[in-house]
Design a protein that fits this description.
- This protein has 129 residues and is α/β, with parallel strands linked by helices.
- It has helices at residues 2-12, 24-32, 45-48, 60-70, 88-97; strands spanning 18-20, 38-40, 53-56, 79-82, 103-105.
- The strands form 2 sheets. It has a 3-stranded parallel sheet with strand order 3-4-5, with helices on one face. Strands 1-2 form a two-stranded parallel ribbon.
- Helix 4 packs parallel to helix 5.
C-alpha cells in the first residue's frame, strides 16, 4: 500500500515509475491504473540497473536480505531508500554492508493504513503526514 501510494504520487508528478513485485496481478493492476509505467516479477540486473532511485516497500528483514543478494545489480550512484517503519537497527545493518557507491537514506513516512496491497494505494496519504 505504501509502495503503491508512493508510486502513484510520483507518476502523477511526471516521473517514470517502474516496479518489482512477486505478484504479477499487482504489477498488472498498477499498470492498468497508471500507478506505474512498467513492472517485473523477476529480479534481473538488466532491469534493476535502470533505476536512479529505488524506494523499497518491504519488511525490514526482507529488505536486508534483498540488498545483500542483489545490491550488485543497482547502478553506481543510485539512491536507495525505503518506507519501512523500523529504523535504528535497520540503518546500522544496511550501512554495514551496502556498497560505498550507493546512497542509502533510511526513511519513515508518518503515514499508513491498516490495509495492504497496491489496490489500496492512496497518492494523498503523505499529504500533511
Amino acid at each position: 500500500m505504501l509502495g503503491g501510494s508512493f508510486a502513484s504520487a510520483l507518476s502523477d508528478a511526471g516521473y517514470h515509475v517502474s516496479a518489482l513485485d512477486l505478484n504479477e496481478d499487482s504489477i498488472n493492476y498498477a499498470i492498468q491504473n497508471n500507478i506505474i509505467k512498467d513492472g517485473s516479477t523477476k529480479v534481473s540486473e538488466e532491469y534493476v540497473n535502470n533505476f536512479d532511485i529505488i524506494i523499497f516497500a518491504l519488511y525490514p528483514h526482507i529488505l536486508v536480505d534483498w540488498l545483500k543478494q542483489y545490491q550488485s545489480y543497482i547502478k553506481v550512484g543510485a539512491t536507495v531508500t525505503d518506507v519501512t517503519g523500523i529504523k535504528t537497527w535497520l540503518v546500522k545493518e544496511i550501512e554495514s554492508f551496502i556498497r560505498k557507491d550507493l546512497e542509502y537514506i533510511g526513511a519513515h513516512p508518518m503515514a499508513g493504513k491498516e490495509v495492504y496491497g497496491v489496490e489500496n494505494s492512496d497518492k494523498s496519504i503523505f499529504l500533511n503526514a
